[in-house]
Amino acid sequence: MRDVTIIIPLRIDSTERNENAHSVLEVLHDSFDINLFVLEADSNQKFNPPSYIDYIFVRDDNPIFHRTRYLNIMLEKTITPIIGIWDSDAVVPDIQLVKAVNCIRHHNITMCIPYDGRSYNVTPDFSFLYNRYHKKAGVIDENKDRFTLHGHLSLGGAFVVNKEKYLQIGGENEYFYGWNIEDWERVKRCEIAGCNVCRINGPLYHLYHPRLHNSTFVDKKEQLKGVKEYLKICSMNKEELMNYINGWKWNKKVQKIR
User: Fold this and answer.
1) Of 68, 166, 243, 250, which has the maximum CB count within 10 A?
2) C-beta separation of 79 from 124 below 8 A
């Protein structure tokens, strides 16, 4: 997995979020010979990075975490041809990550979502057990009937991309600010641009953390802006979309990479 980097943008807003991030990184490190890159953005550093990851801290006093902006920074800095974009609380069985990476490596795939749409919210007690003792997706998988199924067609939490192809269609859309519906938009944008998107059979698990202001819509105004942006993208054909992407002010840095 030396041709793969997992990138995780991070804002520590609870003890649980901190523990989840450490567990997710530890499991990835123990399971694979893989590159791990974390960018923490906050008013002060709260995460103690393990020695085996690449880590950047960015001073950011804004209480709203602009995740899409930081992901673009990380995409620019990452040098491997394959990038996995992970939430700090996302757990995917190892075999599903392997299959997703191989889809990017060996097939004409721009984006692979390493689960089939089933996203389970792990209960606080099982998240605690996972973080403190087990750190094995199998332990969670065996008990998934105890968890709430968040959705059958979820798109967020984790995805794997061909870096070059993903940057050619703009990378992340920074018009999505805070917690929003960018998971839908990026898949739709790929499809309109003619890029192949696939899924891997199996679930994703979301470890518990309190849902504070960066885990829900900032306010009705930002929620509506996100919906309007998504619908705007949906209404475009390929030519219109590429012209629109080329006009993104943050895309000028990305264009230098191409």
Assistant:
1) 166
2) no
Per-residue DSSP letters for 172-185?
S-TTS-SS-SHHHH
Residue that is written with structure tokens 């996100």 in the block: 226
Strand order in 90-91's β-sheet? 90-91, 204-206, 119-121, 148-151
* Gap between the Cα atoms of 198 and 112, Å rounded: 5
Please return the burial class of 223, using the count of CB atoms within 10 Å of its CB with bins 0-12, 13-18 and 19+: middle
Per-residue pLDDT of 186-204, as tens digits, reads: 999 999 999 999 999 999 9
- Cα dist from 230 to 2, 239, 258, whole Å: 34, 17, 25
Read off the pLDDT band of 212 (50, 70, 90): low
The residues, ordered by sequence, that sit 6+ positions from 147 with a Cβ below 8 Å of its Cβ are 120, 121, 122, 123, 126, 140, 205
Q: Which of 188, 10, 6, 2 is nearest to 97 (CA)?
A: 6
Torsion, CA 64, CA 41, CA 229, CA 198, rounded to 10: -130
